[in-house]
Amino acid sequence: MSGMAAPSEYFILSALIFGVGLAGVLSRRNLIAVLAGVEIMLAAANINFVVLWRMTPDAGQTGQMFALFSMAVAAAEIAVGLALVIQIYRHFRSSSIEKPHLLKDGEE
Amino acid sequence: MSIAFYIVAGLTLASAIAAMSLSNFVHAILCLMVFFAGVAGVFLTLNADFLAGAQMLLYVGAVGVLLIFAIMFTRNAVSELFRGSGGWLSGIVVATLVSSLIIAGVRDAYSTAVFPEVAQSSVKALGEALSGRHLGALVVTGVLLTAAMIGAVLVALPAGAVETAPEEDEA
């Protein structure tokens, strides 16, 4: 097996990275940091796609295709997300995630 | 090969933690770029050469610079790092639970799995798959990226910039 790490080690690595991204998304106050956490979680999913591609040689390039398209979707997501952050900053003069709560009931 | 994986994995994980915990946002985004480069290294240890190159170009290049620009535009906007009223603690607890749940499941399901010898990535095979079997997905992705680009421009326009087109006043 030419000294390659086991698939389970890759899966554990991606689970740990996913956990770090999730902790960032749930606990950071800045909207841009939250978007960065989402990117970290997507990268963890991409690692899983590539590991599963490497494990199933009979399936052709499908795993890599999934990773490629997920990269494209992540790029679209970060562009729209940052546009929203800029607009929120323009409106509230802040990029804190706790500032925009106009849609909460009972507040005006 | 295995040693390379451990080095790259440690670097990737450490830079991810740094990107999510540093209080200086520019430093955090630079750590995020190191993290993206580390993910490209992980792809390289899996023989996915083209994806590693795409990861470097797309994430370290485009997304990193985009995030740095967004940080510059919203400079010093947030003084505190984490959410107030104990929200950050519950976030970290939930993330730890989810992560350990995934790890437990993975250790159960893939404890004896090994990588087969054969899988080799070639750009030719990728290109053939992209222009053959996955052509529809490629076209849909192109439409999605165009829509996202137009949407991002529309959303980021300053208020009043689209007054000449009354039906688009939601921007």
What does the model show?
The complex is a heterodimer of chains A (108) and B (171). Chain A is mostly helical and 108 residues long. Chain A has a single domain, classed as Helix Hairpins, CATH 1.10.287. Chain A contains three helices and no strands. Chain A has helices at residues 7-27, 31-55, 62-92. Chain A starts with 6 loop residues before the first helix and ends in a 16-residue tail after the last helix. Chain B has 171 residues and is an all-alpha fold. Chain B has a domain at 122-165 and 167-171. Chain B is built from six helices and no strands. Chain B has helices spanning 2-21, 25-45, 49-73, 87-109, 123-131, 135-156. In chain B, helix 1 (2-21) packs antiparallel against helix 2 (25-45) and helix 2 (25-45) packs antiparallel against helix 3. Chain B is globular, with a radius of gyration of 21 Å. Classes of the chains: A mainly alpha (108), B mainly alpha (171).
The chain-level structural class of chain A is mainly alpha
Structural class, judged by helices and strands of chain B?
mainly alpha
Low-confidence stretches of chain A: none
Distance between the termini of chain B: 52 Å
Name the shape of chain B in a single word.
globular
Rounded to an integer, what's the Rg of chain B over CA atoms? 21 Å
Q: What sequence of helices (H) and strands (E) makes up the elements of chain B?
A: HHHHHH
Quick structural overview:
With about 110 residues, chain A is mainly alpha-helical. Chain A has helices at about 5-25, 30-55, 60-90. Chains A and B meet through helix 1, helix 2 and helix 3 of A and helix 1, helix 2, helix 3, helix 4 and helix 5 of B.
